[in-house]
Design goal:
heterodimer, A: 187 residues, alpha+beta, 2 domains, 5-stranded mixed beta sheet, 3-stranded antiparallel beta sheet, B: 81 residues, 3 helices, 25% strand
Chain lengths: 187, 81
């Protein structure tokens, strides 16, 4: 046996090989420990991610419930427009041919020179008005107003200007004729 | 009731607007009062006993209506509260 062992160690490098195998075993053991710890960390991470995800879901649900409670339905996508209506030009009795937005700014802006008209709040932009009108066309009450004409009324839930009497107004009235938005003002 | 008058009464004639118009009709000092509202312009021609309603959104002939003053005054009673 002693001879066999001596023979083995006589093979060049065989002793080193065993040494390396021994050390490799340790490394394998150490690697196994690292892998275990990594798995533990992954599991912990998964738990944290799961907890965060559940928290986010809970927050979204709470926000949705709050919005529903406040009267505004949580909408994933805007509703479709109820009638065909686009910004364009019309011929007005005073001022002749002009765009709907020009007419609105001319007659219903905060500083317009008309005496008994509704006005948008100071600082209201054309972009704001486009948004109000878009909301009205999607969610407002549409009434026929003669051939090819409609009146759309919508409560925006916040003051957007003043009515004829100068009182705060939160609703908008939009007039559409032949698919063109002719005017829109607070009431 | 004519169509334009009907629309004016239902869409634009609030208690505030009614008071403005009734005060103007009663005020003899102003012979031809003129009012600019959101969609309609109203001219009271007292001597002719005619009220002219103009739809600012309609530049054609259908956008103008002449109504006897008495008919207009009676219609004001149907204004929104």
């Amino acid at each position: 046996m002693g001879r066999v062992a001596a023979g083995v160690f006589a093979i060049p490098g065989a002793g080193n090989l065993i040494k390396y195998v021994g050390k490799g075993g340790k490394y394998v053991l150490r690697g196994g420990k690292a892998a275990y710890e990594a798995a533990q960390a992954t599991q912990t991470g998964t738990k944290i991610a799961g907890a965060l995800g559940r928290r986010a879901e809970r927050e979204l649900a709470e926000e949705g419930a709050e919005r529903l409670a406040a009267g505004g339905a949580a909408r994933a996508l805007p509703g479709a427009r109820q009638i065909e209506a686009a910004w364009g030009a019309s011929t007005y009795r005073h001022g002749g041919l002009m765009t709907g937005m020009e007419h609105i700014m001319y007659r219903h802006s905060a500083g317009s020179g008309f005496a008994n008209v509704s006005r948008y709040a100071q600082g209201t932009t054309a972009r704001n008005i486009v948004g109000y009108v878009d909301d009205a066309l999607r969610y407002g009450t549409v009434s026929p107003n003669g051939p090819g004409a409609y009146m759309v009324e919508h409560n925006l839930g916040r003051a957007i200007g003043t009515n004829i009497a100068g009182e705060a107004a939160s609703s908008i009235r939009v007039f559409v004729r032949d698919g063109v938005i002719q005017t829109a003002f607070p009431f | 009731m004519s169509n334009l008058l009907e629309q004016f009464i239902s869409q634009e004639c609030t208690a505030y607007v009614r008071r403005l118009l009734e005060d103007a009709i009663a005020d003899a000092a102003t012979p031809r009062p003129h009012f600019e509202f959101n969609r309609f312009e109203i001219t009271i021609e007292r001597e002719a006993n005619i009220v002219t309603l103009e739809d600012v959104l309609d530049a054609t002939a259908t956008g103008v209506q002449h109504v006897p003053l008495a008919e207009f005054t009676a219609a004001l009673e149907q204004c929104l509260a």
